TrEMBL record:
Organism listed in the record: Streptomyces tanashiensis
GO molecular function, one term: hydrolase activity
Gene3D superfamilies: HAD superfamily/HAD-like, Putative phosphatase, domain 2
Pfam family of the protein (one): Hydrolase
Alphabetically ordered keywords of this record: Hydrolase
Name of the protein in its database record: HAD-IA family hydrolase
Xref: NCBIfam families: HAD-SF-IA-v1, HAD-SF-IA-v3
UniProt-listed InterPro entries: HAD-like_sf, HAD-SF_hydro_IA, HAD_sf, PGP-like_dom2
Lineage of the organism: Bacteria, Bacillati, Actinomycetota, Actinomycetes, Kitasatosporales
Amino acid sequence: MSVRCVILDIGGVLEITPETGWVRRWEERLALPLGTVHERMHEVWQAGSVGDIGEHDVREQVAERLGIDGPQVEAFMADLWEEYLGTPNNELIDYVRGLRGKCGLGILSNSFVGARERETALYHFDELVDEIVYSHEIGIEKPDPRAFEAACAALGASPESCLFIDDVAVNVAAAQAAGMQAHLFEDNARTIARIAAHLDAGSSLPGRAPLA
């Protein structure tokens, strides 16, 4: 029997990440039409999310595509990371910390190059869970089934023994299709109750629908 595991997303789950409006502020500052930043940077954002580009190259592309200089690039990136990192969801983090040694714990995150270093420094997720699987390090993003396979493999667990928590419905559905238990994060209370039920129930049948 595979050990029971809980695998969590970061942004919107372990981190509270509301939109800060930073992109629109930069468009206004640079006198650019609405949507210009994402249009020009889309390929860079995608490359960074699967590790096809490094942080230095990201900065060079920001400067070239937006026509800004060094200090502006650093300010732009600081605003990006401020929204990306958000603030810690302390209630859920404290609960997960209390599970150490009771089950396997992992993180599966669609990420951006540089995320591990910053999240480790700020939130110490490396001390919270056993394994962290970042999309920019494995070159695969959710909802690709290979991302869920990588997370289960990192923990040495079978999919049916793992409960995956995410705030994006398509990722939850993809995890279920991969044979995992899955729960759509909406609030801490229901998520904590779902984790507790998963651990109390032991190994569940593959394909079982998640509890609300």
